[in-house]
Amino acid sequence: MAMANKAKLEALLTLINTSARDAITLYEQYGEVPAIDQMEPHPLDDAIDQTALKSAIRILEGACAQICATLAPPSHTAINLVQVYDHACVRVVARERVSDILLKYPRGLHVNELSKEINIEPKKLARIMRLLATRGCYNEVDTDVFANNRLSLILLEENPVKHMILLHVEPSAKGATVFYETLKDPRIAYSYEQTAAPVMYAINKDGTEGTIFDLMARNDDQRKCYNTSMRGLNHIMGSLAVLTHFPFEKYSTVVDVGGGIGAFSLSLAKMHKSIKITIHDLPEALVPARDIWVRECPEALAENRVEFDDLNFFEQVPVKDKDIYYLRNIIHNWDDRESTIILSNIRKALGPNSRVLIHDYVLRQLSRKQAVIEASEFGVVLAPEPLLANFGVGNIRSYQQDMTMLFAHNAKERTLQDFLALATAARLKLEKVWDLAESCVLEYSAA
């Protein structure tokens, strides 16, 4: 048994070595390999298709975490799960725009001077910055002198990912603090209503009611932050890789259901200029969308390649007989009952050759038997042994996002079996899973 265990560790070490070398090779195709204290982005950071890199990093992160959890004392690993205050520190530097300030000081700025600019006590500020620099975010170039690095540039005000980060460190964090209470409160413990989501439970103590969408509708700043954060998801999830993996060139019409400002459609319009796009969303979401398209893709408007059409997808059927109906990060906002209504309304719009694309995380089971079935039947990539069958920590964002959906919306990310059940309820047939290493695109036809 001891030899078998040692053999597993040796196999994990091989996976670490191989996947790290794969990542290094990919970076070298775009330039130099990055360093942790690098002060500028790497060209690969903004690549539309990062699927190969994400595939390598998924194995690397999973194998590293698995070997550490195996060899470290259990008490060591257990306390590391909970003694995590990075989010509180990130909230400070994000709210105070520290990265934007440090852009003016490429050689670094002493915390005493930074303290004067943001009015935060310097010794406390130094502790915040040191923790983040230990995580690889910011570079301590001299004692208490900090500069930006490649990671801290994500927190620049112009970066859409920063706005997603703000949603996590503020409303989602509030929901996390009362999560246990919501599980025990007899009024809502078994409820999947959005009004009973932990975020709203926390905020309701201040007299705010409704759903998180209602909250944003009443707050212009939060709504703008949310809309911008959806563009940040392109970078976090590598969502735009679908533009190079799915054969959009074979189709002439795409309906972006719940498309908002066009986080997906803007890139689609620029890459596939023969496609006619319809963006469906609520009227208040389409007002800023039109302004953004005028600014960022006026040629699509001039050539009538995009139209904006009001739609409440719970009550209305989308425009009919189009080629592709695309839903990115829509279904995960809703419970099964509401998701079935959305998909059933889309089903009514389908022509005989139409396809529905649901683009979300797909939660993988830890059962290797189930993973083998999903790989053979639907093309989901199988984790190499002895890595955990769901890639372990290599896929941790999908499981953390599942909790985010629970905290914010009382909703969830789904397993492939969950998606198959939804498809049956909405009279759709799953044709293929396009595995993009982090997210997946599930392709459906009319059943």
UniProtKB/TrEMBL annotation:
Coiled coil listed as a keyword: no
InterPro entries: COMT-like, COMT_C, SAM-dependent_MTases_sf, WH-like_DNA-bd_sf, WH_DNA-bd_sf
Domain O-methyltransferase C-terminal, chain residue ranges per copy: 211-426
Highest taxon in the source lineage: Eukaryota
Keywords from the UniProt entry: Methyltransferase, S-adenosyl-L-methionine, Transferase
GO molecular function terms attached to this record: O-methyltransferase activity
Residues spanning the membrane: none
Single Gene Ontology BP annotation: methylation
Official protein name in the record: O-methyltransferase-domain-containing protein
